[in-house]
Amino acid sequence: MIETADELRAMFGGVHPLAKAKSRPGFDQYSRKFISMSPFLVISTADAQGRADLSPRGDPPGFVHIIDDQTMLIPDRPGNNRLDTMSNIIANPNMACLFFIPGFEETLRVNGRARLSNDEALLGHCIMNAKRPSVGIIVTVDEVFLHCAKALKRSKLWAEDYRRDRASMPSLAQIILHQSSTSGVDEKLATLVEDAIEQDYKTGLY
Q1: Of the candidates 105, 88, 97, 102, which has an alpha carbon nearest to the alpha carbon of residue 66?
Q2: What's the predicted TM-score (pTM) here?
């Protein structure tokens, strides 16, 4: 069992000077460009007790609006109304994001503090399909840096031969119904739920 930071550090040695130097206190031309090309991010938050949560966010490239060198705006789109991320932000502003660009093996990490806004003028930058989001996540940046490509190289995330047939697992509706039922899955109900999910994908993205 490793119980102290000193024990951990002794196993790995020092940090390369470039790994330290790459961390920036705000956006520069390269992180701005990366975010402008990214259609997908994962946002990490935690509640008041420190219980962690992750949530995906996606839109056309450039959906995250950079306000200035230390501030960005992430629009909130319709989801399942659990509000896990936003409830966490109210309780605990500390957060982190990881940005992806399809085909790029590097990723961009942003650490900072978040707050919620319903300012109509600000959210006007985030209109999609003629719909303005009700809420946006404003992030004040503490740290920005690029991750090297090792994780994505090891995973071959973008490799065509790693793509899997979705039919290799049950549908989302079947899984949720099975997880929430003690008497098995009603296939007729599963079909109705699947149809409702597909309809929501068509009409409820924005």
Answers
A1: 97
A2: 0.92
Residues in the chain, total: 206
Encoded amino acid at 200, one letter = D
Helix axes 172-179, 187-203, angle to 10 degrees: 130
Contact 66, 32 (CB under 8 A): yes
Phi-psi region of 103 (alpha: psi -120 to 50; beta: other; left: phi over 0): left
What are the sequence ranges of the domains in the chain?
Answer: 5-155, 166-203
Backbone dihedral angles phi then psi of residue 196, each to the nearest 5 degrees: -65, -40
Distances (CA, A) of 10 to 1, 6, 19: 14, 6, 18
5-155, what's its fold?
Pnp Oxidase; Chain A (2.30.110)
Give the pLDDT confidence of 16-72 residue by residue, as tens digits: 888 888 889 999 999 999 999 999 999 999 999 999 999 999 999 999 999 999 999
